[in-house]
Amino acid sequence: MSTTHHTKTLIIGSGPAGCTAAIYAARASLEPIMVRGLQPGGQLTITTDVENYPGFAETIQGPWLMEQMEAQAKHVGTVILDDIIVDADFSVRPFRMTGDSGDVYTSDSVIISTGASARWLGLPSEEKFMGLGVSACATCDGFFYRGKEVAVIGGGNTAVEEALYLTNHASKVTLIHRRNELRSEKILQTRLLNNDKVEVIWDTTLEEILGNEAAGGALPLGGSMTPPGVTGLRLKNVKTNEESTINVDGVFIAIGHDPNTGIFKGQLDMDDNGYIITKPGTPLTSIPGVFAAGDVQDHTYQQAVTAAGTGCMAALDAERFIADLEDQANAAE
Ligand code: FAD
Ligand code: NAP
């Protein structure tokens, strides 16, 4: 049977933005509910070393950091629920959201901190070999490539970190980047380029992932019982248009992220890439009482600390919004 939950502040998402918003909202007596979504703890739960979150002199682990943030949010009184918001109606007051569980959430203010999800290239072969050698998470799947050869696509921080992580397991890691310059931080570039297990192929795009199809698909010539999975990549040099193939057992796509804003489309102002537009320097969206924090409204910085910072701002603004609502209600009595 479905339940209706009411709160002064509903927080959608449990990454650094959501957890920080929850800590501040709970301490402001807003009695927040935080809905954790499909990825409790957010993107940092799929990485290992975190070296740039202030307060920790030694390297810490992403999943541990998020456990701590959630524990802190709970400790100060946040109600944390496992559900995925599948529908939001910001045209009614209180705002009304529905969870995948069937539960209904009504709230006087909402903090959207749904973050971003890994982007895919959109190749048919990528879909065909998804889970059969194609991945977007080295920390989740790297272990399966012990002693094998893998490739990483992309040139940002994620791609370089994924490649470095994979050197712990794979015998060789080939990073393939569409330009001749990496976008990632210099310290990571130096580590990558100094690692003997790494080769970088510049100015090159992935055209097709090659491999043996799963049962039901066409078997390779001869119809052998080769296990399904990735065996290689067809590449194209973007400067010469020359094509080549390399042999790999797996490929990790690390080409950035898209904001998780599908359920809010048509209700909030968004940019062309689906990021929620906030009033510059604030978490205010186009609807009073709806705030956005973290990667969902930030395509520039996308760091745990900036997500946490904007989560704090969203909760402080939610507190002011609720106080104004209460003043208005008192004045009307
Ligand atoms: P996210 O962390 O993306 O969390 C989003 C949350 O929203 C999740 O809990 C998800 O379950 C929830 N959600 C989504 N949709 C719904 C829904 N419909 N209903 C309910 N909940 C929903 N940054 C650093 O500063 N240092 C690092 O070392 C670092 N390493 C990284 C390594 C990797 C591999 C990646 C991918 C990112 C890394 N980042 C790092 C970036 C950092 O993780 C992000 O900037 C940060 O997590 C963004 O926080 P967020 O709270 O905005 O969103
Ligand atoms: P990103 O910085 O947007 O980089 C994406 C990379 O993929 C770029 O090199 C881009 O190439 C490439 N790319 C994009 N689309 C492509 C396509 N269709 N085909 C081939 N290549 C493509 O994304 P990210 O690396 O996931 O990082 C996202 C954010 O999280 C960043 O702000 C980053 O700093 C942060 N982050 C931080 C850390 C850390 O602090 N240690 C770790 C991970 C992530 P171009 O360079 O040519 O555009």
By DSSP, the count of extended strands is 19
SSE string, helix = H, strand = E? EHEEEHEEEEEHEHEHEHEEEEEEEH
Instruction: Outline the biggest β-sheet.
Output: 7 strands, mixed
Percent range for β-strand residues: 25-35%
Distance between the termini: 36 Å
- Helix percentage range: 10-25%
Q: Provide the gyration radius in Å.
A: 23 Å
Query: Quick one: overall form?
Result: elongated
Which small compounds were modeled alongside the protein? flavin-adenine dinucleotide, NADP nicotinamide-adenine-dinucleotide phosphate
Low-pLDDT stretches are 217-223
Class per helix and strand makeup: alpha/beta
Mean pLDDT: 94
* Total of helices: 7
Describe the structure.
Strand 1, helix 1 (16-27) and strand 2 (33-35) form a beta-alpha-beta unit. Residues 217-223 have low confidence and may be disordered. Strands 1, 2, 5, 6, 7, 8 and 19 form a 7-stranded mixed β-sheet that branches. 25% of the residues lie in helices and 27% in strands. The protein has 7 helices and 19 strands. Helix 1 packs parallel to helix 2. The protein has 333 residues and is α/β, with parallel strands linked by helices. The chain binds flavin-adenine dinucleotide (FAD) and NADP nicotinamide-adenine-dinucleotide phosphate (NAP). Flavin-adenine dinucleotide binds at residues 12-18, 35-40, 42-44, 46-47, 50, 52-53, 84-85, 113-116, 158, 161, 260, 263, 294-296, 302-305, 307.
Architecture blueprint of SSEs:
Elements: E1 4-12, H1 16-27, E2 33-35, E3 49-50, E4 60-61, H2 62-75, E5 79-81, E6 85-89, E7 95-99, E8 104-112, E9 116-118, H3 124-128, E10 134-135, H4 138-141, E11 149-153, H5 157-166, E12 172-176, H6 186-193, E13 198-201, E14 204-212, E15 229-237, E16 243-247, E17 250-253, E18 257-259, E19 290-292, H7 304-332
Parallel strand pairs: 1-2, 1-8, 2-5, 8-19, 10-17, 11-12, 11-17, 12-13
Antiparallel strand pairs: 3-4, 6-7, 7-8, 9-18, 14-15, 15-16
Helix pairs in contact: 1-2, 1-7, 5-6
The structure holds flavin-adenine dinucleotide and NADP nicotinamide-adenine-dinucleotide phosphate.
